[in-house]
Structure formats: structure tokens, C-alpha cells
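Reply to dn_fold:

You asked what the input looked like. This is it:
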Amino acid sequence: MKIRQSIRKMDKWIILAVGVLTIFGLLGIASATRINQGNYVELIKQLIFIIVGCGVMLGTALINLTSIDDTLRNLLAVAIYIGIIILLLLVVFMGSDGGGAVRWLKIGPVGIQPSEFAKIGLIIVTAAGLDMVGDYINIPVYLLAALALAAIPIFLVFIQPTLSTNII
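and this is what came back:
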């Protein structure tokens, strides 16, 4: 019952915008690939990613972060941070070339770009860290600590190089 209420509370305009952008993206892929010659592989691959992405979007939208214990939330932030560092280090040592730079990890037929996960993960980790310090957020040492923690994944992305990700 709670799932239905949560789905009803979702912002319909955001869901509509995601749907419209997805359709335009698929149309762009269809026009850029050899779909006219019966080659639907790229389009089907993108449809699978869209379905998985929508499932992840729905699943994360249903998570009530206020119901998660602070200790567990902090442990999850630490796990996310360690995961980001491990993925970025894997790119440095075992990454594959894409567009003239080593920034991809191949997992079977699928390639992932860990720097994309690092963007979201770093936001989550920084928010959790600043939430932990609470009222002490204005003390420079805590802000410097947050910057120092952010500097490690930023450096690992910088050496790939993924300039657009570093700018973000």
C-alpha cells in the first residue's frame, strides 16, 4: 500500500520529462545507427538500459532516507566511497580505451564508466559527511576534510582523463 502512495506522490512532470528525453534519445540512436538496414542491436541494447535505469530510478525514489538509522546511513556512505575508489582504481589498472582515453571497465559485453557512478556517489558521501558534522559545518577544518576526501576520486578521474566529469 505504501508503494502506491509513494508512486502517486512522485513528480509527474519529472517523469514526463524523462520519458520525452528518452524517446528523443532513442530516435537519435535510431537515426544514427543502421536501423534502416534491419540492425536493431544498438536500439535493443539501449532499451534494456532504459528499462534497468527506470527500475533503479523507481527503486531509489521509493527509499525513505529518514527511516534509515544514522549509523547505517554513515556506513552506507563509507561503503559507497570505498566502492568509488575501488572502481576508479580498477579503471587505472585494468581500464579499456574509449575515445582516446582509458575510462571504461568492460564487464562481459557491457562497458561501464565508473566516473559516472563517482559523480553521484561523491554527492551522497559529501552530504552524509556534512550531515555528520551538523552545526560544526562552518569550521574550516571540516570543510577541508570534505575537500580532502573529494580530492581522491577527483584525482583518479582527472588521470583518466574525463574533463567533463571533473568539471561537474
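The radius of gyration is 19 Å.
Hope that clears it up.
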